[in-house]
Amino acid sequence: MQTILIIEFKGFTQISTSLASRMEEIVLTPEKIRAGIIEITNKLIENVGEFNPYNSKFKVGGDTFVITFNELQQGIDFGIILMSEFLKAVTENGYYYLKPCACISGGDIILHEDSFLDDTSISTYRVADKKEPFTLWVKGNDCIKNIEKKSIPIIENIEEELVKINWQKMKNIKNHPVGLSDFKLPQILLSNEVIFCQSALEALNQILINQEKAKIINAFGGPVPFEGASESTYLKKTIQFIKDNVHKKWNIISYLDLSDKKSSFYWLELARRISILYPDKYNFTAYSITSGTLIPFSYQTFDDKSTLVGLRSYSLELGRATMSSAILFRNTKITKRFSLEFTESHRKLGKFNDAKFSKLLEQIDLTEKNVLRDCMNLVDKLLQS
């Protein structure tokens, strides 16, 4: 029979919701606060476990932690030290929203998904769930008899087969960890802040959704392929956004692959014309790359709120690398980091003008008249749609 320690947190949902109220300006959400509680708990368990080994640790549901031990005394020592560490986290580190309650018992856990199925685990969980914060309980007559033999200070039996350990009186427990003095709560990305787009079509749809909402769009990448129907639709809708929205602004950095003359020429001509038509809304610059230069991703930022990173792979059909999937981050810090990098790169490349356009045309060196005509017709068609 193993020893079970179950930890629950009081007000896990209510406290996080209250703390996040009216904190939209810094994007502090209930989910982030709850994730912070979980992260702190994991760190404290890791610290205590470094000197006080346990068998296993896992989380059940949103805020229930389960730790198992070979012996009851290991569980008792661990629980006392862990409660002491939670107390220091509150009083010394200011994590006032931590309100743990723990219960120890003996038995074998039967678990299905996020539900306890055995009587011991269920009854142990109920104690941890219902009792007051910063209390440590032992349940079961066999466990209680065992701790009574070892003179562990307890508060008299309040309920049948249940006692409360007076853990704050335990001064001689060895192997205390150092606390959270060097701990920094990481910037946790939650599942609702990250969207994975499994195809180029999904990625383009996400870009359009975010372009429609944003006022400032920064975009870095190569020419958008003109062969596909989804890419053509994306280009037409983006151009329509530029035409229709007075208060939106696009800042573009494009790299032009000199080994793909047709794509580079059409993209350069399209950008030049849009820049002339909408100079206050479209700020374009570009540079050339030689054949074989690997650029594994593109990206777009939308205001300071979200960033879409396009992941590229080689397309046998097109004979070049193109976006095959993407990751969207709804995270202010990540977006500001990309935006700062983009702004500095745009400044270094300089303003797009006739001299820069002529130099890039010379580097592309597209001379086939029929290909030039096809590119011009494509640009005309996109701008007139």
Q: How does this model look, in words?
A:
This protein has 385 residues and is of the alpha+beta class. It has 11 helices and 16 strands.
* CATH architecture verdict of the largest domain: 2-Layer Sandwich
DSSP summary: helix tally: 11
What is the CATH domain class of the largest domain? Answer: Alpha Beta
CATH superfamily of the largest domain: Endonuclease Chain A
Low-confidence stretches: none
What proportion strand?
15-25%
Shape: elongated
Order of helices and strands: EHHEEHEEEHEHEEEHEHEHEEEEHHH
Main sheet?
7 strands, mixed
Number of strands: 16
Number of domains: 2
Which fold does the CATH topology of the largest domain refer to? Endonuclease, Chain A
If strands are numbered along the chain, what order do they take across the biggest sheet?
Answer: 2-3-1-4-7-9-8
**Helical percentage:** 40-55%
Radius of gyration: 30 Å
- The overall pLDDT average reads 88
Query: Span from first to last CA?
Result: 74 Å
Question: How does the helix and strand content classify structurally?
Answer: alpha+beta
